[in-house]
Amino acid sequence: MSTKVTMPQLGESVVEGTVGRWLVEEGAYVTVDQPIVEILTDKADSEVPAPVAGRIVKLLVGEDDVVEVGGALCEIDETATADAPAAAPKAAVAASAPAASEAAASPATRKLAREEGVDLSKVSGTGEHGRVTRDDVERAAKPAPARTPAVPPSRPTPQVATRPGAIMPPPSGAFRVPPFVAKPNDEVVPFSRRRRIIADHMVYSKSVSPEVVTFAECDLHKTAVLRNAHKAQYKKEGLGLTYLAFVCAATARALREFPELNARVLDDAYALLGDVNLGIAVDTPKGLVVPVIRNADELTIRGIARAIGDLATRARDGKLTPDDLAAKTFSISNPGRKGNLVGGAIISQPNVGILRIGTIKKRPVVVESDAGDSIAIHPVMYMALTYDHRVVDGVHANGFLHRINEILEEADFEV
Q: Which helix (H) or strand (E) holds 199?
């Protein structure tokens, strides 16, 4: 009796996956839940485990093949036993399967090796029992010094493929980008898979959304007082009470009051979305990812702080699932510890808005009171809202940003 292993549903918005590489070869015996193949999607990379124990009879698809959800990947003979002799693998399969001598490594490390083009079978592992670590892969991936790129001396302006979201060919007119001619100290860095997806997404967003950016200055004095009063207790609970948590809470509440910002554009209409799912931009060694806090408007500050910490940790460890990156309805971009004053972000499609917050600095501000005006030193932050003018009018965008600012300046939170 044989069982067909099929492409699983790796996320609610994922309809297909690309076979990254096989972790087994034909004739190999596998146990239940043993990873057998790596699948790549535009959201995240995942491993498909064996649903039953048995021997791999046939690999039905090759590496780099695109397979729809439910499509067959391989066959497993459930009647085979581990001590039964295995049939010799076919030559075609052996060519696509990983070498049997490949060094042991975690899924995240194997993913890093694939992105860096590192052959794990040629890497000496420094981890426990010879296991290959991320540091081993990063050392192996370092380019040799003074590398000269192999680029033709002259090349016409490229006409890059015009698939949806791809970089478009240059428009007609007098201007042309001059061809690139490599110099000895130049280095050509090929786009990684993630960087290619980011590039395509950003170009697509700029080409379809008539973006407008509006700014606000936010006095965080009262929120800072509230945060300082509770952050020690949060730390004892293993949680970081960051300003980002307060910004997320204020944004989620404002999205309920201004539903035009929690929407997506359709062909001849737009949809006001029922869920408030905040995408939080996280910088990782391999590029930017935007994991999602689902139903953020229903969470307390503690719940949001916990979600931010969990998503950021798993993003940097390469452990996000496709569902962690799906279904965002609005995005927030955080500049991090080395941020700058202010900047407008590009909308993450298919959202109609994104909020970028700047670095927080102490500044002199005017404090109004019944006794008169005075000057005080308060933490101040600038915010930039980028919105899609196809759906969002200026009056709604300004009201939305003003509401976020109002909640933060009044520290209108339950902590």
A: helix 193-208
Catalytic positions, written as ranges: 389, 393
pLDDT of 95 = 38
Asked whether 357 and 383 are in contact (CB, 8 A), the reply is: yes
Q: Taking the model in full, what pTM does it have?
A: 0.68
pLDDT digit string, tens, across residues 159-174? 433 344 344 555 557 7
State residue 56 phi and psi, 5-degree precision. -70, 110
Whether the CB-CB separation of 311 and 259 falls below 8 Å is answered with: no
The 3-class SS string of 43-78 reads CCEEEEECCCCEEEEEECCCCCCEEECCCEEEEEEC
Check: CB of residue 382 under 8 Å from CB of residue 217: yes
pLDDT tens digits, 189-224: 888 777 888 888 889 999 999 999 999 999 999 999
Q: What is the DSSP string of 315-368?
A: HHTT---GGGGS--SEEEE---TT--S--PPPP-TT-SEEEEE---EEEEEEE-
